Amino acid sequence: MDDISDLVAANLIAAHEASDVSAINGIVSLANILRKRGLLTDGEASAMYESMSLPLGLPKYAENPEVQDLQSNLDRLFAVVMEPK
Predict the structure, then answer these.
(1) Domain total for the chain?
(2) Nearest-angstrom CA–CA distance, 65 and 58
(3) Cβ-count burial 53-72 (b if 16+ within 10 Å, e if not)
(4) Least CB-packed of 25, 31, 80, 85 within 10 Å?
(5) Cα separations in angstroms, 60 against 27, 63, 65
(6) What pTM was estimated for this model as a whole?
């Protein structure tokens, strides 16, 4: 029974990770499209980045290596969004 519980827990964690990555990629992709069309200002893109980064820096998450990886990925993706047009 523990093996099944462990499998269910592992599957739930994997599903949450996939969902997070999917959502982040979608948001950043939309931001990039809007920036290229001139519909998202630097300030608005920066505010999006800050609102997505803020929870990752909370004390209960900040020391987690997986969260740090997620933050690095977010930094990299938003660097592309913020490149000059």
Answers:
(1) 1
(2) 13
(3) eeeeeeeeeeeeeebeebbe
(4) 85
(5) 24, 7, 12
(6) 0.79
The first and second tokens of residue 77, run together, are 């993706």
* DSSP, residue by residue, 65-85: HHHHHHHHHHHHHHHHHTS--
For residue range 18-77, what is the model confidence (pLDDT) as tens digits? 998 899 999 999 999 999 999 999 999 999 999 999 999 999 999 999 899 999 999 999
Quick one: 28 exposed, middle or buried, by C-beta within 10 A (0-12, 13-18, 19+)? buried
Return all residues near 85 (Cβ < 8 A) that are at least 6 apart. 35, 36, 38
Amino acid at position 9, single letter: A
